[in-house]
Amino acid sequence: MARTTLTRTILAAVSVASLFTLGACASDAGGEPAGGGETDAAAPDDGVITLGFSQVGAESGWRAANTKSIQDTLTAENGFDLKFSDAQQKQENQIQAIRSYITQGVDVIAFSPVVETGWDPVLQEAKAAGIPVILTDRAVDSSDETLYESFIGSDFVKEGEMAGEWVVEQYDGEGYKAVELQGTTGAAPAIDRKEGFESAVEGSDLEIIDSQTGNFTRAEGKTVMEGFLNKHDDIDLVFAHNDDMGLGAIEAIEAAGMTPGEDIKIVTIDAVKDGMQALADGKINYIVECNPLLGPDLAEIAKKVIAGEEVEKRIVVEDLAFDQESAKEALPTREY
Ligand code: AHR
Question: How far is the CA of 107 from the centre of ligand 1 (A)?
Answer without folding.
Answer: 27
